Structure formats: C-alpha cells, structure tokens
C-alpha cells in the first residue's frame, strides 16, 4: 500500500502530492549577456599571421551580426509564449554561429580570437536554453527538432574549431572536407557499400537472426536446450571478432561468405536470448486463460506469447543491426576482394588518405543509424498496443 492509502487507513489525511518542477533555463540569459559583453573587449580575428587584431567595431559585418543577435534575443524576451521566445533566440544562435564562418571565408585567422570564442560560448549557452524549451514540448517537434539542432551544433562546432585553430588535416579534417570527399569518391564508396552491406551484412543478419529465433522456439519447446544454450551465449559474447574473423576467412574464403559467417556468430546468441526472454514474459494468468479456451502450445505461441514477445524481438534485432555492420567491417580487415568498407579503411590508412577513411566512416555511421531507425519505426508501428510502448 502506498503512503497516502496507509495514512487514510490510519484515520489521517493523505498529504497532497507535490508537483514535479522541471529545471527552468531562464537563469541562462544573464550568463549569455555577461559573456557577450565581455567578448566586446576582446579581438574577434586577425588578418593573416602577422596582421593586426580585429575588434567588433573594426569589422562592420561582425557588428551587424552582433546587433542582429541582440535584437533577436530582445524580441524573444518580449514574446508572449516561451515557444515564440525560443524561436527568436534560435535565430540569434544562428546569427552568432554564422559570424565565424563569414570571417573564415574572408581569410581571417581565428586562432587567437578570444572575443570570438567567448561569443560562441555565449551562443552555445543560449542554444542550451532553446533546446531545454523545445525538450518540454511533446510530440514530433521534440523528437525531430531537438536531435537535429543538437547534431547541427556539434557539426558547426567541429567545423569552426578545426578551421579556426588550423588543425592539421591528418589529425582531424573538417566536416566540409569530409563531405567534399564523399561526393568526389561516391562511385568507390557505393561499391564498398554494396560489397559490405548488401552482400555481407544483410545476408549474415537474416541468417543469424533467423537461426537465433528458430532455435529459441525449439529451446522453448525442449527446456533442456535452453539450459544448455544460455551459458554458451555468455561465452560467445566474450569471443573477440579479431579471433574468429581470420578463421572464418580460412574456412569460407575471401568473399562475402566469410563475412556473413562472422555476422551469424555475432548475431545468433543475442537474438536467441532476447527471444527466450520475450517468450517467458507472458503472465501465468494469460497462459491459463488460453488453456481454458482449449488452445494448444502452438496456438498459444502464435496468439499470445509471440505478440507479447515483440518488444524483446525488436530489441534483439536492433542490437544485431549494429553488431552485424561492425562484424562485417572488422572481418574485411583479414581478407576480402579489393572492395568493401573494411578493406577501404585498412588500405587508405596505410596510404595516409584519411579523407577517404573519414568518408567511409560517415557512410558506415549513416547506414547503421538508418538501419536502427527503420527498425525503431517498424517497432512503433507494430507494437503501439503493447504496454511498454504506451508508457513512452
């Protein structure tokens, strides 16, 4: 029994529930104003390596950017609703982050532009406030806008820091350079994508997940199989990929078959364990109700236990979606035709062509994210009735 119920049972009055307060981002505005004011007294760039430092008043466009950002913040503060205020403050953030790109385009050196970096810190704090307001809004706005703004902020910061401090290309290229290389090397990257994802990952993923699901059904029907296979799952999860990949290459050759075999080993047991956990999730009273309707094992499995196990099945599929891609790329380090993501990374690193390496990493990251996101959307569409989805 809960606290208020116990209090009523004892003859007392239940204490009213206290509303849960969310942290308010309103206190960030003084911080933003203080940082921006301090930035006015510091340089925002330098004309060349030996040129004089440039201040806000020394660059008309910089002053216009500053006045525009201040106007957006002031208009946002006078708005009626917090959402309108957040939209205007977001416009101020965009203006603030546009300034360093404008200066870099004019050839300014931002390595010692302390006023610029302090101004960008203020803009980042303001973006934090905007994201906090958007995160409190339910619906599609929160699920789409907040991750998008957060990702764009990270990319903009990466670009400005790398170009502003002249980070060597061999250490970390800018996102714009990676994007240019991706566009220039599109035919090569597509051939690698086809070899790794279409020929290896999809086949190994389907075989591994399908085998794990089928063996889980068999182990649920024959209990001693589950008791024998579950400890093996813990052992298999500790097997390093670099240990089994060369063995699979010797067994199945250099083409996609060896990569698919590595993926099967990596995806079989996660799917097996999640399926068994899902089949055990049905409550006893539900199973007894099915028996009272004279439903046998297979009818109960199809109408009750498998539908209840869908969240666990999707969990196994989502886990395996990333494991399969990682397994295929690592396996290609140990032998593959002259094509593939793993082959491209290993060979171009040896040649110090890190732009192609980063472009391949971007393609792999986007592929894994789209694969995982597609499964998440499919899960939401097919399990909206499940209590685990209604609580989200």
Order of helices and strands: HHEEHHEHHHHHHHHHHHH
The beta-strand count equals 3
Shape: flat
Strand order of the largest sheet: 2-1-3
**Residue ranges: pLDDT <50 for 5 or more in a row?**
1-23
From the 3D structure, determine the CATH topology of the largest domain. Answer: MetI-like fold
How far is it from the N-terminal to the C-terminal residue, by CA? 25 Å
Question: Which percent range fits the helix content?
Answer: over 70%
Largest sheet, in brief, is: 3 strands, antiparallel
CATH C-level of the largest domain: Mainly Alpha
Which radius of gyration do the C-alpha atoms yield?
28 Å
- Structural domains: how many: 2
Count of separate DSSP helical elements: 16
The CATH architecture term of the largest domain is Orthogonal Bundle
- The CATH H-level superfamily of the largest domain is MetI-like
Mean pLDDT: 80
Describe the structure.
It contains 16 helices and three strands. By secondary structure, it is an all-alpha fold. It has two domains: 143 residues, no CATH class; 209 residues, MetI-like (MetI-like fold). Strands 2-1-3 form a three-stranded antiparallel sheet. Strand 1 and strand 2 form a beta hairpin. The relative contact order is 0.07. The N terminus is likely disordered.
